[in-house]
Give the backbone structure.
Amino acid sequence: MPKFSSKNCNKHQVSQTIMKKIISTPNAPKAIGPYSQAVEANGMLFISGQLPINTETAKIDATDISGQTKQVLANIEAILTAAGYTKQQVVKSTIFLDDLSDFKTVNELYSQFYNDEPPARSTVEVSKLPLGALVEIETIAVR
């Protein structure tokens, strides 16, 4: 069996150019830190974690998990649309909840949003989310 070494790897290294495009839309909340709403690279769209910020007020208006989840999903859909993607092209989501007891409510709304062939998903409870949000969702889509 041949040995693997970095020396051998460098001889046969293949370079690949990554085509990267920053996606930004006024129909979703502006980033609250040094990150982009989304980045498209080689036919994949990486949407940063979306908070339940209403773009018209620039605040979290909803106080319950249902209203916040609906706003997050609307923000995701706005970014997908701006980038020329659809919900059907979403392959992975990660949901962050500040209270896992909200899992059932989020699940119901999420299943309505992705009503046909939902993407792979992880859901985790975290100790705190930015701006006191109850939910945040990050998303990956592929062309």
